[in-house]
Amino acid sequence: MKKETAKAKGLAWWQLSLLGIGCTIGTGYFLGSSIGIKLAGPSVLLAFLLAAVGTYIVFLALAQMTVNDPQEGSFSYYAEKAFGVKAGFASGWNYWMTNLFIIGSQLTALSLLSQFWFEDVPLWLFACVYSILAIFVVLMGTSGFDRVENVLSLIKVAAILMFIVLGLLAVFHLLEGAGQEPSLPQTGTAFFPNGLTGLWGSLIYAFYAFGGIEVIGLMAIQLKNKADAPKAGTIMLVGITILYMVSLGLAVSMTSYQSFNEQESPFVTALTSYSLAFFPHVFNGAIIVAGFSAMTASLFGVTTLLVSLAKNKHAPAFFQKRINYHQLPLASLTLAICGLIAVIVAALLLPDQLFEYITTAAGILILVNWIGMIISNEKLLKHSILRHVVNGFGIVLMLAAIAGIALEATGRPGLYLSGSFLICLILLTKLVKKTTYKRKEWNGYKK
Fold first, then answer.
1. Do the strands 445-446 and 441-442 form a parallel or antiparallel pair, or are they unpaired?
2. Measured in Å, how far apart are the chain's first and last C-alpha atoms?
3. Which of 31, 123, 249, 441 is deepest in the core (most CB within 10 A)?
4. Domain segments of the chain: what residues?
5. How far is 146 from 381, CA to CA, in rounded Å?
6. Residues 368-399: pLDDT tens digits?
7. What is the pLDDT of residues 153-186, one digit of tens each?
8. Which run of H or E residues covers position 446?
9. Domain 14-431 coded CATH 1.20.1740.10
């Protein structure tokens, strides 16, 4: 009877797929893609296609490990199983810091989007307001948060579909506008206005827009049928890729790539010259609502993740302790709030460059985590030569995206920021007590 009840409470594959969409489509795409367009021009479409391929390779690696051995710790557990406790420690803390950067990126994006209506209000003040609201939501507790996320996921998708419909109307001359004739570039120079270096530099922002695939691994343990994890992730990725490619293709066809900037959503920029007084306001509002939801979910995630790290002895034990009020892990939440305060201070000191810096840093840490997933998969499972080649190609793509940041002066501070954290993490990892796993049979694969 208990098993039946537990199964009834499990997620269906489509629910996990929808939850993955909610965690993936965020302000990194709605706003961060502007940076990619500014760097690469129309060739940003190729960057997003390459990022989709790389993300799918990571997903296959994670899904295969999840199906063979579903574990609550997901990729952190697999890293520890493959390479020992030091790898588990590094993987867990890297993911925690990645999420903290993602929160900072989302918080900054929400503040920038709010300046669409209130240009004279400083960025740091909006950051304060959204931080307080997010903390309030966490303190109140939200049972059924997954259901709310599913609804807000639909809002995000609806916003993109709204732009696609309006973009198609513009392409077929059913919308009046004073801008350029919607068209895709006809020459190589027009497609690669900044050459291959522009495409290379934009890769990190394309990958960042797909950040969130980890949720398939983390939430797969809640599936009614664990074997449905690959199907949930595949449908999620295919759907997101189609939405991204079509919407971005329309955006770059409707106005010059030089018009895009990180202060405004590319979809609002693309429709600026059309007589659609309602669109910028409705679209901006939808992004803010959805982005705030994602930021709050990330804050929940960071808080919960630190509790898990403490349970696995990868963090001080006091981070596990909860107070009676909604069973909140107070120490864990306090550390996350310190991260929010750091973002507010940064918004005060670097209001113009903050979004690009934090987004770049978050993107790099995501890719480091993904490379770790592929390497763990290689260590734990047996593969054909073709699969080894595919995994290697995925790693090369992600290393290329990280290296591409060094080509752009505006992205280098994010590279230095993430690099500094990784150096500190390596030094901390050396202090962790070394544990060697006994090599046991791992769901049919002997190591």
1. antiparallel
2. 37
3. 31
4. 14-431
5. 32
6. 999 999 999 999 988 889 999 999 999 999 99
7. 778 788 888 889 988 888 888 877 666 667 777 7
8. strand 445-446
9. yes
